[in-house]
Write a structure and sequence with these properties.
Blueprint lengths: L1 H36 L2 H9 L1 H21 L4 H33 L11 H22 L2 H31 L4 H33 L8
Length: about 220
């Protein structure tokens, strides 16, 4: 019976992880929407809702500690609990980047954009896609899929570099546009960093399944 209860506790942790993931994706999606639409109120809401993510983080970590304290986890179980804590930390950091993007929306209040934002939303969609895939691979314990997802991060890095190059050229052509171009660069960098955290989750998935740590953030 104890094992059944323990397995149920682990299942509940994964369910909470999936719920937290959806909230994080929502924050990222809304932060980009606020930027594209110059929606200051939406940006403020993203910043306010960061508390939801922080609460998820704390609650899941607390439950992990309680499971360790009250049950008798095996080595594999301890790896799952340990990696769950690591994954929620990565998710929480992703949400922080969404907040940073929302703050940029507020800083750009009233500005005429130097260009139509097409590639940045495209980059965001690629990031959102691999977040979903990475969490699914983690919950299912699919290390093979985790390796495949890391390769998809190369597409994100490539698009990120394209965005930087275009914005840099704008800055060179007209120095007066440098401040806004720099802020858009910062948005792209935040999205690229979210992709790095997705790679971290893939690394934790591989560690969970194989018991070995690999560094895929190269």
């Amino acid at each position: 019976m104890s094992r059944v209860l323990f397995d149920l506790a682990l299942k509940n942790l994964n369910n909470d992880l999936l719920r937290m993931c959806e909230e994080v994706k929502k924050q990222i999606r809304l932060s980009i929407k606020s930027l594209v639409n110059k929606d200051i109120e939406l940006a403020k809401q993203v910043i306010k809702d960061d508390d939801i993510i922080d609460n998820f983080n704390k609650e899941i970590e607390d439950r992990c500690v309680r499971v360790i304290a009250t049950e008798q986890p095996l080595a594999k179980d301890l790896r799952e609990i340990f990696t769950t804590i690591k994954v929620v930390t990565d998710l929480e950091r992703m949400a922080d980047y969404a907040v940073d993007i929302a703050k940029i929306t507020i800083h750009l209040k009233g500005d005429e954009y130097i260009k139509e934002l097409i590639q940045i939303p495209e980059l965001a969609e690629k990031v959102l896609n691999i977040i979903s895939l990475a969490i699914d691979a983690y919950v299912k314990g699919d290390s093979k899929k985790a390796y495949e997802i890391c390769k998809m991060d190369d597409e994100i890095d490539s698009l990120y570099k394209e965005i930087l190059e275009e914005l840099f050229n704008i800055m060179v052509e007209d120095n007066s546009l440098a401040t806004q171009a720099g802020r858009f660069m910062f948005v792209a960098k935040n999205l690229e960093r979210i992709g790095d955290h997705v790679t971290n989750i893939c690394e934790w998935t591989i560690y969970l399944v194989d018991g070995t740590y690999v560094d895929l953030n190269e």
